[in-house]
Amino acid sequence: MFTGKRGVSVAIACPATNQGSDVVTTIRDVAKRAGVSHTTVSNVMNNIPKVSEETRQRVLQAMADLNFEPNMAARSLYTKRSYLVGYMVPAITNEFFMNVARGAERVLYREGIGLFLCDTTLAADREADYLRRLVRHRVDGIIVNYVANRKTVHDAVRAGIPVVAIESPVGEPKISLVEVDNAGAAMLGVEHLADLGHRQIGVIAIDFESDVNSERLRGFQNGLKLHDLEPRPEMLVSLSSLLKENGYFDHTVDLARSPVAAHREFSKIVERLLGLADPPTALFCFDYQSAVLVIRSLAELGLTPGKHLSVVGFDAPNTVCVPRITTVVQPAAEMGAIAAELLLERVEDPNAKPRSLRLSAQLTAGETTGPARR
Fold it and tell me: Domains (ranges, CATH) in the chain?
């Protein structure tokens, strides 16, 4: 039973498999076994700090001995918390976002909080619908990883739900932000290629307008300047623009969901770039799916990445890629864990100030880059 501030008690009974039987174990049984009051058991269940550590351990031991599981519905009613966090992800097929989710889940799991995954596909209507559902369920907080419409996120903040953004700022001062130094990350790729003697370096990106890719483009251009190189406009390819021109998409591209169109366009892109009078000797892909499609296109032309054309990607999952892709790696799991920690700060103290943290990426050399061909 939970005892409220006005002394009103709410009895709860939870099924338990105590010693293999069907006996229902209640909070009263836990209190009796631990030698404490119902209120003390309730305080332990809700992590209220006024219980001594010795008493807390005695209650936890009693709960374990009796195989007691708290009734989450009753607990939520008492604490006014759902013990759920929503994660707005634009593409569950993208390994980076799943690594972010794994990092966040590990932190939340330790606190008894579940992670509710929302695959928005970067479609504004799905995004808005998911946010409305999360607000209706009064989740403890929301982690967002790219959004199509910032207004819907602002609405969640106004509804009193803590929000943490990953990678993409959403223009709301009450939202904490975890990001990578994307300009610096892109410079790592340019430095690697320049050290291998590459002078003609092209870029393929889903777009150049998003916060992340515009920063990567800036870092790419700065990296070229550091090595006395000039960007060539004909080698800067925006896949989103090309596909929209051909009527395939009406929002930002998810390559995995449109493999036929993406593969067709990549084959055209690679052939066009290699057909230039002064073709690139290396391509820097701003996401790993683009890198994989470039490598596949090269194979169809009988060309070898790293020999005929060097390829660098972002966040390529080298455990499953053959050949192993040279890639700029973001600390995705760490970003997810930090986002969860920042969110819990706001849950525990609604007046806590939002914070912004910027992490560094690193480059992992694989088999898809080699010395420039003379």
Answer: 2-78 (1.10.260.40), 83-180+332-361 (3.40.50.2300), 182-330 (3.40.50.2300)
